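Dissemination and training. As part of the outreach component of the grant, students in the summer workshop were shown how a complex can be specified as a set of sequence lines and then modelled as a single object. The example used during the hands-on session is reproduced here so that future cohorts can follow it. Participants entered these lines:
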Amino acid sequence: MSSTPPSRSFGTVGVVRTHVVRLELPPGGYVLDNGARLTEIDVAYETYGRRSASDDNVVFVCHALSGSAHAAGQHEPADPAEPAWWDEMIGPGRGIDTSHYHVICANILGGCKGTTGPASAAPDTGKPYGSRFPDLTVGDVVGVHRLLLLQLGIRRLAAVVGGSFGGMQVLEWAIRFPGMVARCIIIASCAGLTAQALAFDIVGRKAIQFDPDWQNGDYYGTGKAPVKGLSLARKVGHITYLSREIMAEKFGRERWTAEDVTPGTADGESRVNKFQVQTYLEHQGEKFTQRFDANSYLKITRAMDEYDAAARHGSLEAACARIEAKVLVVAASSDWLFPPEQSTEITNAMVRAGKAVSYCLLTAPYGHDAFLVDVEHLPDVIRAFLPWVERPSTVVPGEQHASDAAAPAVLDSEDRREYQIITRMVRPGSRVLDLGCGSGTLLTMLAREKQTRGVGVEIDVRQVIDVIERGHEVLQADIDGGLAMIPDGSYDYAILSETLQVVRKPRLVLGEMLRVAKEGIVSFPNFANWRHRASLWLTGRMPKNKGLPFEWYDTPNIHLFTYEDFVELCRVDGIRILDVEFLTDDLVGKALVGLGAGNLGANSVLVRVTRDGREGGA
Amino acid sequence: MSSTPPSRSFGTVGVVRTHVVRLELPPGGYVLDNGARLTEIDVAYETYGRRSASDDNVVFVCHALSGSAHAAGQHEPADPAEPAWWDEMIGPGRGIDTSHYHVICANILGGCKGTTGPASAAPDTGKPYGSRFPDLTVGDVVGVHRLLLLQLGIRRLAAVVGGSFGGMQVLEWAIRFPGMVARCIIIASCAGLTAQALAFDIVGRKAIQFDPDWQNGDYYGTGKAPVKGLSLARKVGHITYLSREIMAEKFGRERWTAEDVTPGTADGESRVNKFQVQTYLEHQGEKFTQRFDANSYLKITRAMDEYDAAARHGSLEAACARIEAKVLVVAASSDWLFPPEQSTEITNAMVRAGKAVSYCLLTAPYGHDAFLVDVEHLPDVIRAFLPWVERPSTVVPGEQHASDAAAPAVLDSEDRREYQIITRMVRPGSRVLDLGCGSGTLLTMLAREKQTRGVGVEIDVRQVIDVIERGHEVLQADIDGGLAMIPDGSYDYAILSETLQVVRKPRLVLGEMLRVAKEGIVSFPNFANWRHRASLWLTGRMPKNKGLPFEWYDTPNIHLFTYEDFVELCRVDGIRILDVEFLTDDLVGKALVGLGAGNLGANSVLVRVTRDGREGGA
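and obtained this result:
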């Protein structure tokens, strides 16, 4: 599944036009979070894909700091200074598939791309607001977009999607207008900037404010603008958007030589011997001053800095408790401006609030820019999370996905037998955590046959995408890192299938399982199986057979143990064994198990356990 | 050993005075690397500790970007704007122990702390150089310091020590003047900035140059100076000096409240509601403009950016081939401006050039600032590397250290027996790599009894410090990460004592051993020992006894195998076993080994191996 790579050709949503609409505001105007009022607001927006008759296919895309409504397609005439900023993601067959969805992207309040901002004419004077433009919040930005959508007759969104500052808007959408959003995708974002990110913004703004041409914000019509300050701010920004690794790869310590530049041109000559990273920054800085307004930069970065999703509600968990949407949080491994820890912070708050959330960590060297450039799995994970038609926002046990039919699980007979036993052990309608869930086959089986609500934990991103596509929640994580994000007693069952022997700290994992779930269901290879014993006893070699198929030097099974060893650990740690199934694949083993010698006969063992003192039966 | 923490009281080197000396230059002046000449150079320096009669105890300390000659002690009258920048490291009993060493620190060329720089009067005009001051290189800086030392009658340095930009100077000292330096300590530094670090410097300089008060560098005497630009540059710098983690811890998203500030003061009121990180940056920026010259900042950061130790010699390895000093490279784990990879780059070049180098990675949350603030192990590692008196710079096999007598190795009888067998196997005078060398006991035994030149690899920093103190080279590294830094055939023997079973990829480690060394000496527990076999066979439990003392769930032995398994891997991988010693600790085992049943009798096994096709006998 998710096997078709997105097309790389441009312009598949065709030629688009930016619309500008004047909002119908209530009398007295639009009241901002800080109490200021705007009596006139224009909003620039674009749409891609056909809107369904029932309005159930609308996806709203939130742009980042320097974006615009022009997310996809081509303008006519084409404007090279303003290319579509997410063209690779939006289009037929792409991550946000315009064959199915009606996509809307609008410029934000305070911006300079058609929506009202500091450079717009104030209605009272007819002259640009300049220093009079009020301070904004992320909530103000989202509120204006909501008014736009209502004016367009849209009362519910199939999804809201955005990265970076756009992701903050998505989070605020979900918290502020919970009834209006079915699904949210928050990419490379956070619930509040780190001190380091704040610091870079503070420096960037200071660079603009130090520029004498800024004139305290009232530079419009003076023939001067703080281009030096704005270009400095943008240079700082661009350093933070790339990872150290990608900067090393793109530029290293390379310099321009006379052969690299056009001879005889002043621009060319001036580059010779400069570091390539210098001319890159200069180019980015200069380009930005031609297409962006310094006051917008100040207002938007202030709103970004001030954003703290937790603040209004006491804690991020309390804020997330308001959310009704299914949420997908995506982080990029090398993003140091909005680092993955901040995405897991949102994820963990959602988990603690008992909300539906999936988390996916994409391995990408690009830094924060990852969400805008070609990341291997980003379109796939978005496509997997966005079903073709809107479904109810609450999780439906056993929700049927197209992909289930398209790619039926291929199980070998032993896995199937084990899954059947587990399915038998689990009570209908219970909450299940599958640790090391693979592509979600067991979760799907449990959902179908026992109507469970299942959450998976899995480290492999391709499997994570499969689990999402099957409609389950999944957290991309290394089980060995612990389950700290999950509150005590969140699940009826935690399942650990053939995994205990590969983790680094099996005792810790077992303890964590029984902290987050009332019962654990664990299967593991039994090293005391008669064939393993005989192999070691008779040949003096480590056993290698169907049950333990690896060579000693490349086995993932780094903690070998027997059923009796497991029983002893349970005794020591106060764990009660409620059920045991001895699994065998040979006649001798079956006979031994039949004679009560499970530890000798079993090839692998499946147990259901609970903490001593807890009731049996989830 | 290394157990005494450095004293935390200040001023232990007492009251010091900065001397300023005019260099005696050759006719025509001092020729810089770019061909420019300076006909008059003053150098400011300080000294701490008594100079020995034979001048064999001189340690030269190189300061970083914004440092000065005032590295330790107190000035009288005290100048709060210029506190001693490394007072915690230099003093009696401290990392650089002034009870034994005569320490010299001098302000760098181009600086603004007493040594000739852009603000100094040019001899031809009597007015400040300003824009006329030439561009500098790190080599120019080091060359001027060398002239100072020669003028002071010092022809050889026991050590040169420095961090950050100071570390670049240390590296250049070792490359440019190899005969003059016995030991080098390069801390949190590099052989050339990363593209990211270049980018930050480029932005910082641009901030100064954009400031109208900079006046193209000729601002002296105009009553104006580019303080806004310089403060911006310093703010950017300070962000890069701290790690994201420490910024989060120090500032987070905290703001000043009315309770935090002095009421009624304009400064106090202005801070209310500001992020604490903002006032921190503002304070750092402002403070810096009061004590530093913008033109010096431009010249020094240019020299830093342009530094590329490899450039003059074709490669870093070729540059390192010139070095005669013993080198210690120290990195800080959370330093992202001069990241640990850059320290290992220097280390690896030294290894490839066959030079004496040790590498130590300090775990510290402080970021690049780690080397200036209180880092747990930095004084210890420096003290361990700096013997009390200068020794020859070449490695003397079996070099005796005070610490060897002070802390004789405590070995249990089995380790001792194993080490004795290994020592017997090793040919006199050979080169030995001890993988997982612990505190260097075996290396010391081999050096004493077989006059080997030994290098250790060890992951634990306290053990690394012990190995350094014993006078061996050591590389702090995880063996599982591979031995990529070591060229083929660098050693006669690679030793892996009781470690193969704890690494994640034993086959890879074995292969790497026999790539970097002609022979490998490997010891490991034998899982086929009769007691282990009997335990599993009879009790159905994993063996736990003296040879395998851990519970299955917390054992570090993640790859159990038998002697016969090892033999089979050798057969598959083309490894020849030259010697086998079966070690036992019981009578049954001894009897079995005596009967030729080594795989049944041996508790552990020690083998000497080589690649098939190679001659036996290193």
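Chain A touches chain B through 68 residues (CB under 8 Å). Students were then asked to discuss how this feature might be tested experimentally.
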